[in-house]
Amino acid sequence: MYPFSYTKVSDTRAALAAGRSGGRYIAGGTTLVDLMRETVERPGTLVDISALPLREIMVTARGGLRIGALVRMAEAAADPKVRGTFPVISQALELSASAQLRNMATIGGNIMQRTRCAYFRDVTAVCNKREPGSGCAARDGFHRTHAILGTSDQCAATHPSDVAVAFAALEATVHLLGPDGQRSVAFSDFLLQPGRTPNREQALRAGELITAVEIPAHPRPLQSGYLKVRDRQSYEFALTSAAVALYVRDGVIREAKVAAGGVGTVPWKLPAVERRLIGERPSAALWARAAERAADGARPLEHNRFKVDLLKRTVERQLRIVGGTE
Ligand code: SF4
């Protein structure tokens, strides 16, 4: 470890003032403290925002759902409003991390968490995300768990969050507060693909903090769920995952929201799959036909080619589960 200062704030004005001075926000600390211990991250000042009033889960006036940034993962997973309206969110949270971590980690921190690429966490390895321009040890190294979608020559690390996949599928919005006031960013624009700047991971401006994630109203009843495929059944990141939400009326799929995890440098929305579903009647043949499009644009590396087929099968299976033919 190395020396750093710590301050705890109790209102957003104090938080923003500390953030403006270069302080690094921390709440549950389940990712950042690990990275500090490994000296991957070396913030000079930690600003503890865990006492800010951002722990509410509420149904919005339009019938959507707003989850405060400081709601703990376990709280969100157990909340009846979340479970009743968007079970895909509860399931994604319950399949994440461990019970102890879910009791500490917050929703805002969860979507801000950094990649689990082993080379990123090994300060002796080259890594463009940690040290821009240094190279990518994963490319010539071991990359079985890495991304096949949204990669660049600079980086192929996956985004590790499960609930972010549900947020991507449901077309959530991220609410932010910063020195210039409030603003909202579509979830699809909030997490950034690596391109030439893999060190830049979110669309946050200096000193901004996340205040809430909002899921828009969707027609009801919306059937939804999350499937996670991994090397072991608990405390493991996804090799592939699928978040699916379907609105079926009069036997026809009117809306389809589908995203994949474990395969993209960001949670990967699957519009080609969605388009194949809308206007069709649920059937095993439809699920298979739609899932064929799940890996469109994939650029696998040598060790992770298996993810192309695994992704298609994951999406097909979850369509079957949510669509009611399994
Ligand atoms: Fe770093 Fe990305 Fe390469 Fe991993 S894949 S070593 S995070 S640049």
TrEMBL record:
List the InterPro entries: CO_DH_flav_C, CO_DH_flav_C_dom_sf, Diverse_Substr_Oxidored, FAD-bd_PCMH, FAD-bd_PCMH-like_sf, FAD-bd_PCMH_sub1, FAD-bd_PCMH_sub2, Mopterin_DH_FAD-bd
Domain FAD-binding PCMH-type, residue spans: 1-220
- Keyword Iron in record: no
List the keywords (alphabetical): Oxidoreductase
Q: Which GO terms describe its molecular function?
A: FAD binding; oxidoreductase activity
Pfam families reported for this sequence: CO_deh_flav_C, FAD_binding_5
- Specify the protein name: Xanthine dehydrogenase family protein subunit M
Q: Which organism is it from?
A: Nonomuraea turkmeniaca
